[in-house]
């Protein structure tokens, strides 16, 4: 083989080696990304499971899921947290449990955490309990609710104490008896 042939062979061989090294680097980078993605999916699944647990343990479904208490909690998860047209009437007026699936899917995790730590509302919502939760728990609740996806309609609007609500409501607290 002449000198030009040797140089061409060296260039081809060098190109093959460089190509193989590049392919190996891409494969390793892809494997690292896949490993990181799997770790992220596991962490996200854990957060969703934690959020599901917190929603149940904190009693969010009791008000925010229609029929939940009446059916002893036997409501499909696909129906959870869609708000309720059953009002709670007291000295403050009549309030309705919000559709959390519409509310939380409209907020980022960070917005939800800030909101949960600062908002105040009318009874019977125990808003003060949310303030005691840590950021990780609030983020888990957000991830769970967002995993359910948006569903349903917004709850009816607040009715002032001077007006009578049109739909069903629970008098809370009940007026004194005879």
From TrEMBL:
GO molecular function, a single term: electron transfer activity
Domain of life: Bacteria
Region (Disordered): 155-178
Protein's recorded name: Cytochrome C
Organism of derivation: Mizugakiibacter sediminis
Lineage: Bacteria, Pseudomonadati, Pseudomonadota, Gammaproteobacteria, Lysobacterales
């Amino acid at each position: 083989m002449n000198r030009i042939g040797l140089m061409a062979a060296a260039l081809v061989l060098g190109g093959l080696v460089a190509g193989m090294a590049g392919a190996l680097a891409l494969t390793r980078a892809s494997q690292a990304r896949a490993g990181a993605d799997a770790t992220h999916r596991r962490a996200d699944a854990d957060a969703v499971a934690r959020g599901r647990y917190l929603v149940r343990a904190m009693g969010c479904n009791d008000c925010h899921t229609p029929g939940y208490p009446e059916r002893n909690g036997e409501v499909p998860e696909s129906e959870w947290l869609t708000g309720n047209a059953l009002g709670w009437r007291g000295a403050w007026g009549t309030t309705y449990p919000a559709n959390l699936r519409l509310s939380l899917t409209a907020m980022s995790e960070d917005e939800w955490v800030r909101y949960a730590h600062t908002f105040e509302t009318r009874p019977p919502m125990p808003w003060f309990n949310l303030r005691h939760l840590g950021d990780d728990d609030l983020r888990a609740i957000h991830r769970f609710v967002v995993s359910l996806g948006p569903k349903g309609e917004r709850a009816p609007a607040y009715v002032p104490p001077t007006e009578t609500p049109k739909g069903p409501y629970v008098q809370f607290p009940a007026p004194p008896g005879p």
